[in-house]
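Let us work through a complete example step by step.
Step 1: write down the sequence.
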Amino acid sequence: MFDIWRDERGEVGLAGRLDASQADRARDVFAEVEASCRVDFSGLEYISSAGLGVLLETQRRLGDAGHGLVLTGLSKHITDLFRVAGFDAIFEIE
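Step 2: predict the structure and record it as tokens.
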């Protein structure tokens, strides 16, 4: 199961498993992000390469306008994945 939402501040929340079957749904939500944005990973259990691709697409689009994603609440497993993939150099991770 996967859930994604934007709160009243415009921040994005993720929960469950973001895999290829949910990438289009995530892409639709991230397409609405037009400025720097916090993304709460505290409920995310798993992210596939397709999910990573959605985040990378969004980061590149926002970066072209001088903005970016700030990732928060990453589990140790997902933090390790981001480090191995080199994404810790691309995203601000808190």
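Step 3: interpret the result. Strands lie at 2-6, 12-18, 37-47, 69-72, 92-93.
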